[in-house]
Amino acid sequence: MIGSRFCIAATAALLLLGAGGCGEEKKSQPAPKAGSAAQTLNVTIGVVAPLTGPQSHIGKDLENAVRLAAEDANAAKISIGGSVLKFQVMAEDDQADPKMAPVVAQKLADAKANAVVGHFNSGTTIPASKIYSDAGIPQISPSATNPKYTEQGFKTAFRVVANDNQQGKVVGEYIATNLKSKALAIIDDRTAYGQGVADVVEKSATAAGAKVVAREYTTDKSTDFKAILTKIKGRKPDVIFFGGIDTQAGPMLKQMKGLGITAQYVGADGIQSTELFKLGGDAVEGTLASFPGLPLDRMPQGKGFGERYRAKWNQDVVLYAPQGYDAFNVFIESMKKAGSTEPAKFLPELARIDYGGITGPIRFDEKGDIKDGPITMFKAVGGKWVAVATIGGPGSAAEKK
């Protein structure tokens, strides 16, 4: 059955009259003749993200990466136990909705998916994670950064990016130390991701000497921020931090410009996409944003991946495609080490994996968080993101430009 874990059912032999008693051994099946076609073993990997709606550009970016990884894996004809693995991608749309996430997660569980790359949002990853845990399906999020995801204690939950405790701390300290903010305003979208990273930024920036003069809230569906921005303008902030996604950051930046707000705008990875330049136009210039990873051109295999991605999909990487590609291949590597595609058998290998991916070395701690995950600060310059500082990473000190 497509989407099920592969199982070879033994064919029961008809007993002939007068032949053998119940203690007679069954004859083993003959080995394939030389030159015969290898047995195919179907493996289904799910990918879940917002494939429709305002965040679909990010979701399709992840789906594209996973489909490219599956195509590469099938071309390599990976073999386990004498069977050639045939990877199939089961893409599901959670619409960036926490209520939809368990529904699509259950669909993958019912289909007996071998593993899942996803979800994109923390707000969908967290509720879905229990479904996967109950079903014993390994899950790697390429992008969910809220610490709660891996703090639940599920042995099936992993991520290949640094979490918000790491990212938010770096951003908060950068605002206080590098930007020397004396009047910080914070806005978040009330999602698990946006509020989570904003909370850590506030704590970190305050501890490093910045003063928070305003803390405002919106939703991840809003596009009109004039009332909030007008209120903030009266507090005369020198920095505005936004915890949310590019689809809100673009309109917000335009409205800031229209209101004459000149404060430095800072966001986290949710806004650090190529799409922001389309959404915000020239108002994006000078914006700062963090990303839990290295710039694409500094990833060990980033340049080649970016070229292959563009050749395949006729577009540049939007945001988390390299992480999605790596997540897929970490599953494959775990299966190869275990000699099995059964989740219960390759899950222990996944927990102790040491894999050199597109994004860099991937190893997990006891919670399932990536070890030594770097954080990069980017600045919007001339319609492109330019790396200005990288903090952390395997065996490295902070690098600044």
Description:
The chain has 401 residues and is α/β, with parallel strands linked by helices. Helix content is 36%, strand content 20%. The protein contains 12 helices and 16 strands. β4, α3 and β5 (139-141) form a beta-alpha-beta unit. α1 runs parallel beside α11 (321-338), α2 runs parallel beside α3 and α11 packs across α12 (343-351). It is elongated. It starts with 38 loop residues before the first strand and ends with a strand. Residues 1-36 and 395-401 have low confidence and may be disordered.
Annotation field: number of helices? 12
* Secondary structure: helix percent: 25-40%
Low-confidence segments, ≥5 residues, pLDDT <50? Answer: 1-36, 395-401
Please state roughly what percent of the residues sit in beta strands, choosing from under 5%, 5-15%, 15-25%, 25-35%, 35-45% or over 45%: 15-25%
DSSP strand count:
16
The structure class reads alpha/beta
Compute the separation of the termini in Å: 54 Å
Radius of gyration, taken over Cα atoms and rounded to an integer in Å = 24 Å
Order of helices and strands: EHEEHEHEHEHEHEHEHEHEHHHEEEEE
Describe the biggest sheet? 8 strands, mixed
